[in-house]
Amino acid sequence: MPFERPPTIDPVAAAHWQATAPALSPWLHEEVARRMEQRLQWIRIPPQAWCHWDPVRGGLQAHALVRARYPQALCHVVETAPHLQPLAAKALAPAWWSASRWIGAGVRFEAPAPGSVQMLWANMALHMAADPQALIAQWQKALSVDGYLMFSCLGPDTLRELRALYAAMDWPLPGHAFTDMHDWGDMLIEAGFAEPVMDMERITLTFPSAPRLLQELRELGRNLHPARFAGLRGRRWKAGLEQALTERLAAPEHGGQLALTFEIVYGHAYKPTPRVPVAGESAVSLQDMRAMLRGNQRR
Question: Alpha-carbon distance 12 to 26, whole Å?
Fold first, then answer.
């Protein structure tokens, strides 16, 4: 896979989605975040500070779970969509009368300084990024040495039933391609992470009707493929789509409800001690030198 930019994502469409995404945490995002939070039990050293990236879409309920697990850790909230920032502040800032406002390390609604957090939490955001390599590099920069990234995103088997339906109808693809977990692992290493651990699972969602299914898809995201339908479609096309969904996606094993598959990719990786390149003359930043010295002291 090339590492310049995903070839199936239209950056203009991705920016428009970022600016207009619904101000809610979809049920699937919350469920994925809940499962990812359970994986934190295997982390031996709790973070002193952590960063929650795009919490409104990633899961506000999940934020509370992570905060409960690490009540003494300072939390940086980074909401990159301007129209969601007020909602994030309202939902996550402790009330003045709450004991949590005075007990614990608190919440800061600002990006962390480089190398200042020990965990970066990013749930269900990476597959909608027009330039995921640049985003991963941002995350790596924010982490301290031995800090770790916890993220999730959609994998390539997502919406396989819908893709098959569109292919049978000879329509353009219903969505952009999602990256395989092995390619995400390669990107993490390219960005300077170490020991990436990738995992995946499939979740099947069922819906009582085609309109309810389409509502869920609209809340989850948009089709960012450059070769998507060029213009708006009419009511007749929508009626045909709903009829096709009803006929083709009904699953007997789910009582005749309409079923869609979502592949969920989980990623975890550490930021290692920086290495000085072997050369006749090398330049090392003060921050990297301090990190290397701390690493030598721990050995």
Answer: 23
